[in-house]
Amino acid sequence: MNLKSGLFQSGKNQDRIHYEDERATSLLTNMLIEHLPKLFYKPIVIICIGTDRSTGDCLGPLIGTSIKKELSHFHVYGTLKDPVHAVNLEETIQYIKEKHRNPFIIAIDACLGRFKSVGYMEVAKGSIKPGAGVNKELPEVGDMHITGIVNISGYMEFLVLQNTRLHLVMSMADIISIGIIEAEKVYLEKRMTVRRNWMANQDTAIN
């Protein structure tokens, strides 16, 4: 769980999507494709941060559980069974760096924000700082991130998380999960196209 201050400062509409937008899944897929590395040899690692012990903070584990069984190439850490949270985040990051060579990391987390921003999802470059919403000091993580604003910040964040509507969290989780699954398909097809073109050029050069 992280805390958004000055939400969506860029002012670009495509930076955020409301969970009730009919185009939400396709918009999120397109945003992901735009941010993924153009160097197709980099391993893509997704860290779904959160815990199943809090309604507001279970967005990440819900997504991790949904996509882990569907993805063929992207690597997923953080599920309802094996969550990545405050206690094991640093250990998980270290494990990922040891297991995957120069990975591109996508961090996913729920967050608290302004009242008018509840229900929005953001896809953006750069890292997030989990734990800020509940005053925990954790390392920043991610080359890019996906966040869902699940409730309001400013007062008794722990209780706010416990009283977040499950419908909102599950709706966001479904959209983000489908968006990631579709993005992987597009990304892998692009990678195959690049490889086919490279091999064709090599054959031409030899002949």
Secondary-structure map:
Elements (H helix, E strand, L loop, with lengths): L1 E2 L12 E3 L5 H12 L8 E5 L10 H10 L6 E3 L11 H11 L4 E10 L6 E6 L18 E9 L4 H6 L3 H41 L1
Parallel strand pairs: 1-5, 3-4, 3-5, 5-7
Antiparallel strand pairs: 2-6, 6-7
In short:
The protein has 207 residues and is of the alpha/beta class.
Can you describe this structure?
- It is a single chain.
- The protein contains 5 helices and 7 strands; from the N terminus they run ββαβαβαβββαα.
- The chain is of the alpha/beta class and 207 residues long.
- It has one domain: Rossmann fold.
- Helix 1 crosses helix 5.
- The N and C termini lie far apart (57 Å).
- One of its GO terms (biological process) is proteolysis.
- Keywords: Hydrolase, Protease.
- It comes from Metabacillus halosaccharovorans.
- One of its GO terms (molecular function) is peptidase activity.
